[in-house]
């Protein structure tokens, strides 16, 4: 049977690569993003459905759920570093806005989208959320949001695994070929990020896409409630 796959943040970088892999695998794929001018051309290129949806907006997320019907794989890839708020407000107001924006973009996007499609998840389905090495160190409000994503995933797994749904986070290290840094990554920083890996290379979007496909495969049905680190050894676990 054709699997239905929903990838939030599927217009670029990691989400786009994941959507492409599932589409090549003959799944019926829905990608989302906040802007029609990227959602529509990307959906056309990949041969998938495109839905304009801000995953941090409850009304838009509810409409997305109505549009997709049943779901076999949900990939919560939407996220990243929010635009810095401009303005000359009080420092604490700016700090609060920055934390709210990071929590909305990197935690609440996944929480809301998953809640909206939860009743549409089939048995043997998978919820995969893209976390970050920033949850482990030096992540600030972005890392704190990604750490909360992993904590939420653990409780989601406890709730959904009895129905046969697996719930995992792929915690990505530095991945090149995305818009994450908005072109602002210096050569020096790139070298430093590669240097801290054991295999001395940046991650690729396909490293993450292949991990997502594995987590949604029959071989991964007993893996749930986990954070899977994909970072070339830049952060190690026991
Ligand atoms: N690149 C890395 O080194 C790296 C490392 C660790 C983790 N990650 C994580 O990987 C995920 C994918 O990021 P990426 O690196 O592939 O960056 P990217 O190329 O900037 O892609 C981010 C995607 O998320 C979408 N998006 C952002 N906020 C959204 C929202 N509220 N609702 C719907 N879509 C939204 C973007 O589209 P619109 O802006 O058009 O909405 C875009 O499609 C993110 O969760 C990021 O935190 C990335």
Automatic annotation (TrEMBL):
It is an enzyme of class 1 (oxidoreductase). Its EC number is 1.1.1.-. SUPFAM superfamilies: NAD(P)-binding Rossmann-fold domains (SSF51735). GO terms for molecular function: oxidoreductase activity. InterPro entries: NAD(P)-bd_dom_sf, Sc_DH/Rdtase_CS, SDR_DHRS6-like, SDR_fam. Keywords: Oxidoreductase. Belongs to the short-chain dehydrogenases/reductases (SDR) family. This is SDR family NAD(P)-dependent oxidoreductase.
């Amino acid at each position: 049977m054709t699997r239905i796959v929903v990838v939030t943040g599927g217009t670029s970088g990691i989400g786009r690569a994941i959507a492409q892999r599932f589409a090549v695998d003959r799944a019926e794929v829905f990608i989302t993003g906040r802007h029609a001018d990227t959602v529509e051309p990307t959906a056309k290129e990949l041969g998938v459905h495109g839905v304009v949806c801000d995953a941090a907006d409850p009304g838009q997320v509810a409409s997305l759920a109505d549009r997709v019907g049943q779901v076999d794989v949900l990939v919560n890839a939407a996220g990243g570093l929010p635009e810095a708020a401009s303005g000359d407000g009080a420092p604490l107001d700016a700090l609060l806005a920055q934390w709210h924006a990071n929590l909305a973009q990197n935690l609440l996007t996944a929480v809301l989208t998953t809640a909206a499609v939860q009743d549409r998840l089939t048995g043997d389905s998978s919820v995969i959320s893209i976390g970050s090495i920033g949850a482990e160190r030096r992540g600030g409000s972005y890392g704190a949001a990604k750490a909360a994503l992993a904590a939420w995933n653990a409780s989601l797994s406890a709730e959904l695994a009895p129905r046969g749904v697996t719930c995992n986070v792929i915690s990505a290290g530095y991945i090149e070929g995305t818009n994450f840094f908005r072109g602002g990554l210096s050569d020096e920083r790139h070298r430093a990020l590669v240097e801290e890996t054991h295999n001395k290379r940046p991650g690729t979007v396909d490293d993450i896409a292949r991990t997502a496909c594995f987590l949604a495969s029959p071989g991964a049905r007993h893996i749930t409630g986990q954070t899977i680190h994909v970072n070339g050894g830049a952060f190690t676990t026991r």
